[in-house]
Task: inverse folding
């Protein structure tokens, strides 16, 4: 599906291409969910203790960043192919085909190398999918987490989607600087991986996630004042944002999926039925819902005061408000109860 997305049948604008993209994108996300749900559900199965789960979550976050870094090389690769004499569209298709093949090989590695039966004795669920989903959402802590998670993805997606416009419209910088800032922010977040792993056993996941919500809220409010409102050179304003937001990016890159693993194990101990796959499937739906709503909101806000950039400032403030909401909701998560159940199993 990844390759087919870039292989529209008609050259130029066409209703056929719109239909082609609609079908291939829907199928892409269906198959991505079909892979990611059982993949993430392996976290509580392979990680029998907190330390191992944190190591797995950290590794997944790190390899996600490594994959993103590789993806950022795409324009460089197709530029080299164009330099070798290939036509632009063909060069782009070859680039993404090569990346898709590398991705497919990587995705097959856990399929053929993880001996799942050595870690868990899986029994077929007697519940239907709908009953299992309903039982999953009966878990109060999971409902709290999902509501908070939707708020997080709503806020962060609004911010990331509008980042190029923050740079060009508010800071009046070249569009390429948005890529520089995003890459720098991501790279800086990696530096915080080790401290987060060290601090989590001491403070717990809940306190660190609440801290991350606070940092993102401050970062988004700060972004709303980008430009002449701050007595700092425009480029420096962007660099300050990268440094401030990096620890929060690291925390949200590692801890949320470890929290889902904790909740799913606690639920399995309480109910006698392992529904870890359903927990991660519901979480996947939550972040896609947050991302979808964010896209609509950014598009709507962008139409406000286009000449002054007012719509983008509103977007930053809205992202901050949503993060405050996410933090307030996550305060209701009963981490002590979940930990107590897991440790006394």
Result:
């Amino acid at each position: 599906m990844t390759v087919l997305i870039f292989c529209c049948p008609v050259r130029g604008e066409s209703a056929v291409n719109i239909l082609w993209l609609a079908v291939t994108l829907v199928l892409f996300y269906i198959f991505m969910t079909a892979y990611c749900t059982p993949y993430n559900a392996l976290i509580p199965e392979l990680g029998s203790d907190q330390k191992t789960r944190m190591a797995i979550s950290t590794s997944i976050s790190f390899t996600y960043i490594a994959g993103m870094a590789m993806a950022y090389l795409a324009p460089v690769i197709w530029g080299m192919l164009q330099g070798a004499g290939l036509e632009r569209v063909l060069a782009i298709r070859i680039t993404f085909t090569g990346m898709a093949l590398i991705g497919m090989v990587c995705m097959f590695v856990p399929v053929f190398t993880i001996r799942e039966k050595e870690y868990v004795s899986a029994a077929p669920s007697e519940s239907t999918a709908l009953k299992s989903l309903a039982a999953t959402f009966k878990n109060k802590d999971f409902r709290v987490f999902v509501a908070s998670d939707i708020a997080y993805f709503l806020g962060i997606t609004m911010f990331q989607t509008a980042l190029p416009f923050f740079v060009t419209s508010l800071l009046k910088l070249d569009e390429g600087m948005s890529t520089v800032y995003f890459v720098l922010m991501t790279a800086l977040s990696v530096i915080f991986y080790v401290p987060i792993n060290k601090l989590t056993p001491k403070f717990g996941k809940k306190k660190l996630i609440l801290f991350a919500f606070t940092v993102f809220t401050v970062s988004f409010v700060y972004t709303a004042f980008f430009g002449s409102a701050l007595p700092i050179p425009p480029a420096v304003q962007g660099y300050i944002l990268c440094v401030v937001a990096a620890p929060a990016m690291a925390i949200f890159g590692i801890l949320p999926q470890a929290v889902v693993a904790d909740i799913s194990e606690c639920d399995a101990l309480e109910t006698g039925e392992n529904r870890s796959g359903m927990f991660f499937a519901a979480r996947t739906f939550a972040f896609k819902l947050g991302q979808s709503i964010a896209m609509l909101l950014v598009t709507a806000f962008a139409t406000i005061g286009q000449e002054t950039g007012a719509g983008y400032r509103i977007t930053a403030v809205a992202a901050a408000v949503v993060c405050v909401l996410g933090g307030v909701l996550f305060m209701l998560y009963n981490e002590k109860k979940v930990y107590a159940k897991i440790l006394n199993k």
User: Anything to note?
Assistant: Residues 37 and 281 are 5 Å apart (CA to CA).
